[in-house]
Amino acid sequence: MARAMKGGGRRSAELPRQGCRDNVGMPAPQATHRIVAADAHVVPPPFRAFAVRSDEPCHAFDARAPYGRVHVVADRIVDAAARARLAQAGYARVDISEPFAVDYAATTWDALAATSGVAGLAGAVAGALRVTGVLGDTLAAYERSVATRVDWLASRGAGFHNDVARHWSRSLFWILALDVGDVEFVMPHAGLRLPLADGDLVVFDPALAHGLCRPADAGRAVAQHFAEGDTGRQLFLTGEMLLDDARWAALDAPWQPVELHAARGALDLLVAGFDDRGGAVQRVRSLGQAMSRDICHVDETSTAGHVSHGDDS
């Protein structure tokens, strides 16, 4: 149900730890896992809920609700010295000269292990991700997912946006913070403000608008507060976890016909735009017919056969 936002957002509510029944084989010492609620949404009228459609053939006339949790795993995947080595290498690969600049650069786990001096870095990240339970209990599912792709992600803050094109509507994202001073990860429509620390591994649904803000800015993204200099920049490793339909259903975000979401008054996050400073949905009235079978967003370059990394893969 939609609720009013007061004072530019609220600090995030943490939930009891769950989804971690079997920790055999996990890195030691055991990771600290926080689950943060992201399921009470501020929805602009006349809409009453959020959902995201797809531009892939496999879900051409379906939509799903956003996943209502953000996971934060604080693990000793890389120590301070290893993070410093990675940061030096990563910043050399990207261009973030302007505030709100965001840049990616492809890398490999072998290169990252060599740079960091951490043998088995990919396996350590997979083990930390397993704590979240989003792909089930089997470590192999996380190992396969991590092996598909890893990138450097650098930024100078980030205005509010979402990431839902192609297979991203079927994915959760993860980010591993390597260099993040005085920054919050913010989801304005979920009232979520999450302070980040070096070493944090964060898993979230990219369908909801998100950005990087200064804590003093009360949930607003202010470009000039990420001016030039080392204190204005952030560096992460990042990747995707592609979920099959069974896993989305297990996370209480099943893919369902668009008619069901239309009956709930859902706003389609696939076509929504956002104010980069405050996150407000733009041109709300123009979105009134988006959750309709008369509209299809299928991208002919998309494929329905991307490998899924849920339990059944």
Tell me the layout of helices and strands.
Layout (H helix, E strand, L loop, with lengths): L13 E2 L16 E6 L11 E5 L8 E3 L4 E6 L5 H12 L10 E5 L2 H8 L4 H10 L8 H10 L2 E5 L2 E4 L9 E10 L3 E4 L4 E4 L4 E5 L5 E4 L20 E9 L2 H6 L5 E2 H6 L2 E3 L45
Parallel strand pairs: 3-16
Antiparallel strand pairs: 1-2, 2-5, 3-4, 4-15, 5-12, 6-7, 7-14, 8-13, 9-12, 9-14, 10-11, 10-13
Helix pairs in contact: 3-4
General description of the model:
There is one protein chain. By secondary structure, this protein is an alpha+beta fold. The protein has a domain at 45-250: Jelly Rolls. The chain is 17% helix and 25% strand. The protein has helices spanning 80-91, 109-116, 121-130, 139-148, 245-250, 258-263; strands at 14-15, 32-37, 49-53, 62-64, 69-74, 102-106, 151-155, 158-161, 171-180, 184-187, 192-195, 200-204, 210-213, 234-242, 256-257, 266-268. Strands 1-2-5-12-9-14-7-6 form an 8-stranded antiparallel beta sheet. Strands 15-4-3-16 form a 4-stranded mixed beta sheet. The chain has a 4-stranded antiparallel beta sheet with strand order 8-13-10-11, with no helix packed on it. Strand 3 (49-53) and strand 4 (62-64) form a beta hairpin. Helix 3 (121-130) crosses helix 4. The longest helix has 12 residues, at 80-91. The radius of gyration is 19 Å and the shape is globular. Mean pLDDT is 87; it is low at 1-11, 16-29 and 302-313.
